[in-house]
Write a structure and sequence with these properties.
154 residues, alpha/beta, Rossmann fold, five-stranded parallel β-sheet, 4 helices, 5 strands, globular, lyase, DHquinase_II, aromatic amino acid biosynthesis, amino-acid biosynthesis
Length: 154
């Protein structure tokens, strides 16, 4: 199985923590960690990050035929990018959204996650573990019947 991991704006600048691991890791260490975890799950990961909405849309559109699933962390685009939503709806590849932090309790504009409407699942507020949960969920979804049925996970 091949999964396309798409990370949006500013994710490349973030620092991450993981329970049981001392200190913080940077974006490149996160990708290394995800690569190892994916290989153990039998997943071939392909990583992409951009701060530009159009580049993210181009990547989603190119997923058909080269990825079995998409794991997307759209960053701030989650709250207003109808264009990313439409790309996910049209590309024909099931997607699961990951939000590193739980947006509830933050600014009111974060109450509606537009991008999530184009995803078959969503993991929010789980830190980098959300990526692994999204992988497991997408594997299960694809193995059930080969198609993605909508189910939002919080």
């Amino acid at each position: 199985m091949r999964f396309l991991f798409i990370n949006g704006p500013n994710v490349n600048m973030a620092r991450f923590t993981e329970p049981g691991v001392e200190g913080e890791i940077d974006y490149n260490a996160l990708l290394d960690y995800l690569d190892v975890c994916c290989q153990q799950m039998g997943i071939e990961p392909d990583f992409f990050q951009s701060n530009h909405e159009g580049d993210i849309i181009d990547e989603i559109q190119s997923a058909a035929g080269r990825a079995d699933g998409i794991i997307i962390n759209p960053g701030g685009y989650a709250y207003y990018s109808v264009a990313i939503l439409e790309a996910l709806q049209l590309c024909g590849v099931p997607a699961v959204e990951v939000m590193l932090h739980d947006p509830s309790g933050r600014e009111s504009f974060r109450n509606t996650d537009v991008v999530s409407f184009g995803c078959q699942g969503r993991f929010a507020g789980e830190g980098i573990s959300g990526y692994l949960h999204a992988c497991s969920y997408l594997v299960q979804l694809l193995r059930l019947d080969g198609s993605a049925q909508s189910h939002m996970v919080q």
